[in-house]
Write a structure and sequence with these properties.
about 180 residues; alpha/beta; Rossmann fold; NAD(P)-binding domain-containing protein; Polyketide_Oxido-like; NAD(P)-bd_dom_sf; oxidoreductase activity, acting on the CH-NH group of donors, NAD or NADP as acceptor
Length: about 180
């Protein structure tokens, strides 16, 4: 069983991920509110997996997500799994949802903030994965999921997403990339 730290464990996704991991017998440390970036690096040190499901809407998104990703990389955690957003998934090779001509400007800073964090991960030597809903969170739990390309009509429950994340912890199949997930 893995030793897992879940940052953002008081939120919807983090709480479900921690619960599924505990139910499968993993040793889970739940971190609720942001302990501070440097504290996060210290907390995650020595863990097999660090899961990040955090946001700080009071800060500049790019600054926050760069710092958060950097802290996770610096921690030396064996694996990093980040809860991402579908707007960074590709609609075609090299073209993300956010790059589309009709993407609303008011959402761009938050999305680019997430992208900045992914860039930090990509530039590191860390074993990382960003898992995103392929559409939006919502719907009724099916108990199962599927990997899916971006589709704003797709729904993903927090419960089904947690199963996907912990399945990836139990049987790593994706590394150094971002994948989309939808309820099946």
């Amino acid at each position: 069983m893995a030793k897992i730290v879940v940052f953002g464990a008081s939120g919807k996704a983090g709480k479900e991920i921690a619960a599924v991991a505990e139910a499968r017998g993993h040793e889970v440390t739940r971190i609720g509110r942001d302990p501070g970036v440097q504290a996060a690096a210290e907390v995650a040190a020595g863990y097999d997996v660090a899961v990040s499901s955090v946001a700080d809407l009071s800060r500049d998104a790019a600054e926050f997500y760069r710092e958060a990703a950097g802290a996770l990389v610096a921690s030396g955690a064996g694996r990093i799994i980040v809860v991402g957003i579908y707007t960074l998934l590709e609609t075609s090779p090299g073209v993300r949802v956010i790059d589309g001509p009709d993407f609303p400007d008011e959402y761009r800073p938050f999305c680019l903030g997430h992208a900045a964090g992914v860039e930090v991960l990509a530039e590191s030597e860390a074993d990382w994965l960003v898992m995103s809903p392929s559409g939006n969170f919502g719907g009724t739990s099916t108990g199962t999921y599927r990997l899916a390309p971006v589709d704003p009509a797709d729904e993903l429950t927090y419960e089904d997403f947690a199963v996907a994340v912990v399945d990836e912890i139990d049987n790593p199949a994706h590394r150094r990339t971002q994948i989309g997930v939808a309820s099946a």
